Request: fold
Amino acid sequence: MSRRHVGWVAGTAAAVLVAAGAITYAVAQDSGGTGPRTPGAESADAGFARDMSVHHQQAVEMSYLVRDRTKNEEVRRLAYDIAQTQANQRGMMLGWLDLWGLPKVSAEAPMTWMGMGDMPPGKDGALMPGMATDTELKKLRTLNGKQAEILYLRLMTAHHQGGIHMAQGCVAKCSVGVEKRLAQGMVDAQQSEIELMAGMLKERGAQARP
Reply:
């Protein structure tokens, strides 16, 4: 795999970090005075912010797990970029909920805002599509080197696929412009990372799970 590709991901993460303050300010403006009305607790805007924050937290956890279990610099760099980007985005989304005066948790089932509240409950800690189970995370903690890399890349590919589906839901349903744009950015960046991880899996004689 080319270091140029990994470097591109790193650059993307850095750009997101630099933009964080501007985006938080923009969403406050987008939801106030002359902009759209502040979203309600049951809105798609609030639901996406809450659910994607939970989804992102697991990606951060998995990424730091694999960094402790491999010395491969390309995997470690990718994991660091994903962890930093998603931790930053999670902070922004929780910040928006604060700005809107809305709770960070809901009694509603995950993804109710997408019309998917009646889907079967997640099993073994996998609360939403794409999330790893507690058993899979436990296994990741026991592996090292190439085996840890392959499991991480497979889990993160599935995680990104679930995240893309949710972000596309926000693009379609959210009303706050800056949140819709962030969601579209997630779709674009995570699709690129899926392609990158497919190449990394191929280099290791593996492929993503069906």
